[in-house]
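Hello again, I could really use a second opinion on something today. For a while now I've been wondering how a particular protein folds. Please have a think about how the structure follows from the sequence. Here's the protein in full, and shout if anything looks odd to you:

***
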Amino acid sequence: MKATLEERDTLVGVVRRVAEQLAIPFTVGGGIRSVADADQLLSAGADKVSVNSAALARPALVTELAEKLGAQAVVVAIDTEGGRVKTRAGTTDTARATVEWAKEAEARGAGEILLTSIDADGTREGYDLEVTRAVAEAVSVPVIASGGAGEARHVAEALEVAQAALLASILHEDPARLTSLREELRGMGVRLRDAA
């Protein structure tokens, strides 16, 4: 289903307001089906765009985005379950193997892979390190582990195999947890950038 013009204008407005308030780089995904869609979001202040279902439906989109915007601005989000790629917010099976799609996305120009394990997502029992390791070893671009963080140890484990780890529910319920989480990670010897 295509985003309506009104929905697109609303998203661009949200990105513009976020960019005015945020001092760190941020990525925007959802409904990006063309270079023009992505360019609007980058012009509004996003640093990167993330594509998932549209890239699976038309893989050439990744190449087009990378050629026009630069690979550093293109993130391919992969939802995986049982080593297979899912689409439409993880609700629809595809015929693609996760590692093979990650390799193709990189070959087409993706600058990063955002890998969400549906198997681990929301469990707070840790990231799916097996699939994350397999993807990270198969590509040379940064891999962002997503799905499963429940405590600092999980983040540290993910950072042993991936270049970054996404945090969601662990912070949604307690945003102030970010400060203590950073200190716990530093105490484990994880090197972190200073927060802006």
Observations:
- The two ends are 37 Å apart (CA to CA).
- The mean pLDDT is 93.
- Residues 5 and 141 are 33 Å apart (CA to CA).
- Residues 5-187 form a domain with the TIM Barrel fold (CATH 3.20.20.70).
